[in-house]
Design brief:
With 87 residues, the chain is an alpha+beta fold. It contains 2 helices and 5 strands. A 5-stranded antiparallel beta sheet has the order 1-2-3-4-5. The longest helix is centred in the first third of the chain and has 12 residues. The protein is globular.
């Protein structure tokens, strides 16, 4: 599966984020890193407004978050690309 052009990626990301417990998701942007990861950025809520980054590589999907008032992201969830595709 080519995640770059697959139209199911964003809905899968949002389903994963809802499963983790984020809500009121607002998509912000998609970018790429030098090491060829795709970064989907959202603003959402758990108990307060949260910046959310979803990093997708060929091997894994990593969800990181940060309160809007902080500057350091922490890992929220990590799964293999195979687990992500099953969502």
């Amino acid at each position: 599966m080519n995640l770059i052009v697959d139209k199911t990626v964003k809905p899968r990301i949002e389903r994963l984020l809802y499963e983790i417990g984020y809500f009121d998701l607002e998509f912000q942007s998609i970018t790429t890193t030098l090491d060829k990861k795709f970064v989907y950025e959202y603003i959402g809520y758990i108990d307060a407004p949260i910046f959310i980054k979803v990093l997708i590589s060929k091997a894994e999907v990593e969800v990181m978050d940060c309160y809007l008032t902080e500057k350091h992201y922490v890992q929220s969830k990590k799964l293999s690309i195979e687990e992500f595709i099953k969502l």
